[in-house]
Amino acid sequence: MNITWTYIWSQIFTLVEYGLLGATYFAKHRKLVVILDTISMAAGIVAYILLGADLGLAMSVVILLANFYYLYDEGRRGKNHKLKLRDYVFLALVLAIIAGLAVWTYDGPLSLLSVAATVLYEISIWQNNTKVYKFLGIPVALCWMLYNIFIFSVAGILSEGIIFLAAVIGYLREYQAEKLRRLKRLRRKKRK
Predict the structure, then answer these.
(1) Where along the chain do its domains lie?
(2) pTM (2 d.p.)
């Protein structure tokens, strides 16, 4: 592996991508998660182009386009809407596109780690629950970390390690906050 200016720029964009992605695990509202992740994916797309990582690039484009839909949908229907048939159809369409792109850009078994990460990510952000998003962020980070090893992205490997920790901490904080809310509800019920 040669250290060229292209590689250095890819690593800079990777750091920007992961800095924004890490912030999503501390966001409390889905809209902010999606906004930060959309900007993150744009930086990731540039990094994957520079690295020549076709499957990672394809998965990032799918995530970016799906995020635009989620932002539109949340703005139109609000953050607390119930999932309806069209939401399930959209998820099925996105997963079908991911499968098609995986076949088209297949680069060996290890390249499928980005596919696994993207599928888990799409499921996590699709369902409107930041706790589930943060929980699924743990295996997503592991898959992307292994993919970054496969494409020799040092900044990606280190950043995914940090993202993994952010996902764990974000999930634990969400879990503790929910536990505290349940405890407060129980105390209120006992008082009545």
Answers:
(1) 5-191
(2) 0.72
Contact 130, 174 (CB under 8 A): yes
On whether the CB atoms of residues 165 and 180 are closer than 8 A, the answer is no
To which H or E segment does residue 114 belong? Answer: helix 112-126
Alpha carbons 70 and 78: distance in angstroms, whole number: 11
Amino acid at position 191, single letter: R
Q: What is the DSSP string of 116-184?
A: HHHHHHHHHHHTS-HHHHHHHHHHHHHHHHHHHHHTT-HHHHHHHHHHHHHHHHHHHHHHHHHHHHHHH
The answer to whether the CB of 64 falls within 8 A of the CB of 38 is yes
Scan for tokens 């592996």, then name that residue.
1
Report pLDDT digits (tens) over 110-128.
878 888 888 998 888 887 7
